[in-house]
Design goal:
Largest sheet: 3 strands, antiparallel
Order of helices and strands: HHHHEEHHHEH
Radius of gyration: 15 Å
Number of domains: 1
Distance between the termini: 43 Å
Organism: Halorubrum distributum
Helix content: 55-70%
Number of helices: 8
InterPro entries: DUF8048
Protein name: DUF8048 domain-containing protein
Number of strands: 3
Length: 144
């Protein structure tokens, strides 16, 4: 059962350097990180419209969108998907490493690093990417 999850964990929007960094620093086995990220993506993906309305979106790419959330945000996510404290910490580290990488790629690394000092980052994979284009940083992002 666990071998199948490790071989095909499902999709998640964190890759490359951010994933390697997380696997190296996480207090869970590196082989488990992709499965944890896939579990979290399965929870967050269907909620993306809520994130678009409630949180500041700091980046939108065809395959993923990045948000800043309150620091205790991850406790609720961990409760919903059944993560231990160590698993939650690994997921948080992965998402924040991805935010840093996205910031570096867009020339906004300092800005994102500063934001991560007081908030947490969430990267949510999107299917098809059509919503990312239609829900850009619109003026109503602050309103409810």
């Amino acid at each position: 059962m666990s071998d199948d999850a490790e071989q095909d964990p499902g999709s998640y929007p964190i890759e490359g350097t951010a994933l390697v960094k997380t696997a190296a620093l996480a207090s869970v086995p590196a082989a488990r990180v992709p499965a944890l990220l896939a579990r979290v993506q399965a929870d967050l993906g269907p909620r993306i419209d809520v994130y678009r309305r409630r949180y500041e979106r700091i980046a939108a790419e065809p395959e993923r969108e990045t948000f800043l959330v309150e620091p205790d945000h991850w406790e609720a996510v961990a409760d919903r998907v059944g993560l231990s404290e160590r698993e939650r910490d690994a997921v948080v580290r992965a998402h924040e490493a991805a935010v840093e990488r996205i910031g570096s790629g867009s020339g906004r690394r300092e800005e994102f690093d500063t934001a991560l000092e007081i908030r947490s980052g969430v990267v949510i994979g999107v299917e098809g990417g059509d919503e990312a284009e239609t829900n850009g940083d619109e003026p109503n992002a602050d309103g409810d």
